[in-house]
Amino acid sequence: MVVDEQAPLLVATDVRTWFDTPRGMVKAVDGVTLTVQEGRTIGIVGESGSGKTVLGRSLMNLVFSRNAIQSGSVVYRGVELRGKPLREMVHVWGMEMSMVFQDPMTSLNPTLRIGEQLRESLWYHLGLRGQELRTTMTTLLRSVGIPEPERRLKAYPHELSGGMRQRVTIAIALACGPKLLVADEPTTALDVTVQRQILDLLKDQQHERHMGMILVTHDLGVVAGRTDEILVMYAGRVVERAPTRTLFRSARHPYTEALLLSIPRLTNRPHTRLRVVAGRPPDLVGIGDVCAFAPRCRNAQPRCIEERPALQPGGLDHEFACFFPAGTAEGTAAVERNIAAGRNAAGMPVLPDDTAVVTS
């Protein structure tokens, strides 16, 4: 594949991935646009079911479901990936862009030794053989912090800890020197100490290799200090986009605000009740052309259940999709009206202590 070295690493425009199901059309990703530059990290954040994983797979051209309907543009270094046949994409995966999947026990083949799984891409893409291949494999495992790499090459996935397995998947993803890495919930099911080690490892490898990276997570705490820009997704759409510091300092979408309030803080007194995002995630079938977050939103007004807000500029490189944004006079007035009424326009109870009742 001939690429343009001067072009942005990845430019995705109006990406849509819908699934035609017996219940109706599921709009898992519904019009997402983003740009990844070399050496920069984009965080994609949202609850389970918000479309994060499907977006990551869509950017990689890894959605193979027969009932998937895809549109939009994904351009990697000047080359359009949408519509490329599998025989061409196999030369892109691993060499140009790669992915770390969220569960290493399902992404690693349990019947093959670690060495056999690491060998495949090195042999196929780089043509390595014999001692050169073995030396490269041990060097890769050592670079991701695996002790005794020669011995680990002979091990099966079940013989390694969760953190070790995730390090192996990272080694496999980085084996051929990709320029773009998509890390999909790379710390799922790992304890807190190991989570930090894995995130530090990804950051170190990115800086060393000068890769672009997309970090997908449900936890805003994970992307704090590890990303340059954050996209907050809800119901398949981007509801807020901003540089990381800007987002944490002045979040404007009520959903982003609720996610930030739900993060435990060391400054909280013992037994402080944790905040939650009220209500349930939406059913992606039949949301309609309205604000999908309105049924759970403290700010929601009649306009929110009648039309859908588009992304609008809110400052330098800051966009949000809300008619009554948090931290503004309009948003404060909306909350006050809802507190006075006891509920928002969608009927969700709104209390004056800045916490919302969790409705069923």
- Give the radius of gyration: 22 Å
Fourth-level CATH superfamily of the largest domain = P-loop containing nucleotide triphosphate hydrolases
Distance between the termini: 51 Å
Q: How many strands, what sense, and barrel or not for the largest sheet? A: 8 strands, mixed
Order of helices and strands: EEEHEEHEHHHHHEHEHEEHHEEH
Give the CATH topology of the largest domain. Rossmann fold
Class from helix and strand fractions: alpha/beta
- Estimate the helix proportion, in percent: 25-40%
Choose one word for the global shape. Answer: globular
Q: Count of DSSP helices?
A: 12
Give the domain tally: 2
Can you offer a commentary on this structure?
This protein has 360 residues and is α/β, with parallel strands linked by helices. It folds into 2 domains: 1-96 and 178-249, Rossmann fold, CATH 3.40.50.300; 252-341, no CATH class. Helix content is 30%, strand content 20%. The chain has 12 helices and 12 strands. It has helices spanning 52-59, 86-89, 104-107, 114-126, 130-143, 149-152, 162-174, 192-209, 220-223, 244-249, 254-261, 329-341, and strands at 10-21, 24-36, 41-45, 68-76, 79-80, 97-100, 180-184, 212-217, 229-234, 237-243, 312-313, 319-320. The protein has an 8-stranded mixed beta sheet with strand order 6-7-8-3-9-10-12-11. Strands 2-1-4-5 form a 4-stranded antiparallel beta sheet. It is globular. Residues 354-360 have low confidence and may be disordered.
